[in-house]
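thread: overnight batch results

M.L. [08:02]
morning all. the overnight job finished for the chain we discussed friday. pasting input first so we're all looking at the same thing
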Amino acid sequence: MKNLHFKDFFWNSDLTCTGGYDIIIQYLNEGKRTCKEVEDFMKARASIEEKYAKDLLSLSKKVCGHNEMNTLKRSLDMFKLQTEHVSLSHLQLAQSMREEARKVEEFREKQKEVRKKTEQQMDGLHKQKSSQFKKTMDSKKTYDQKCRDKEEADQNVNRNTNNPKQMEKLYSKAQQAKQNAEEADRLYHQNVTTLGKVRDDWLNEHVKACEMFEKQSMDRINFLRNTVWTHLNQLSQQCVTSDELYEEVRKSLEQCDIQKDIEHFVNLRRTGDKPAAPVLYENFYSGQSFPTGAPPSRLPPPIIRRGLLPEPTHNIDTDNSMMQDGGYSVIQY
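M.L. [08:03]
and the structure it wrote out:
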């Protein structure tokens, strides 16, 4: 299949029309806008990566497992360290993205300068072509009118008239009309020739401009394709780098031994291998101590009472048995 090219499919039947050329320029402007959008996109992505890197770096400085010990502490320290390394790799990625965005900007500006010269040249040719075309068409109108005047003057001369003076006057007009027509013909022919040269120059430059614009478009498409490809490779490489850094953490976690950490804690912080002795019960009244497991009754010891009063061995005066002293008692303590 034959390749299609700008120079073959953007002509117009009207010599003064620039529709085909304008469509190409519009396409180039849209391509330039695409370059700017890709550039802005990559700058924005770089800012996101930079912010993420700084936040991640700040996070890696926070306390995490400060009071932990032994193998788990080493794993957590490795976790923080590799998090810091990941943040630095994202910061490097942000710098690489900004560098790619700068390249896009330089490419866009370079194409802009090259286009500017060609567009200025083509704009000048378009104005010259339009001006010469108008001049040619005006000279044609003048030429047509002069030719009609000449024919009319010739017809008047050919008419039969008996007035010699009138004939001489008509003949003079016919001669003047002939000269005017010849001069108009000369100017018209000259303008047509000039317009032909202007057209040839415009055709050649239009073809060259189309070829240059087509090459610019091809370069732009190729450049943006490669730029996005590079951008994706950078993102993929970041994933690989992050995974390699995280793999170091996984290796450290594999060395984390639960039983060793328990034993390390026991050996480091042990306080003794014997429990406290049981608390004994101490009776308030007896002063004896009993195991707390079987405490005795909490009642006080029973009171020891004496036996019955013995019978008297001699008679007692019953009258005197009633003592007047109210505080007297036969019971002795």
